[in-house]
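Why do we care about 3D structure at all? Because function follows from shape, and shape follows, mostly, from sequence. That is the central idea of this module. The next example makes it concrete: a single protein chain, its amino acid sequence, and then its structure expressed as tokens.
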Amino acid sequence: ADRAREARLGNVVRVLVEERRRDTFVGRSMGEAPGVDGAIYFKSERRLEPGAFVEVRLVRSGAFDFYGELVAAPELAAVG
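And the structure:
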């Protein structure tokens, strides 16, 4: 399990925003089953609504959770 978590570090994953806890957002990717696995925590100065999908780079992991950096959000997408 530790090796599998380490292999995901550095990857950018699509995250479903589930909630906000003060200045940190909590979500999950397709790799985290709700109610079973941990979550992905990341910070954003932008207002993100639950249900939004964002791109997060996984930079650190704990026993169950991942911590990441926001890479892209709907508001950040280029308009072409």
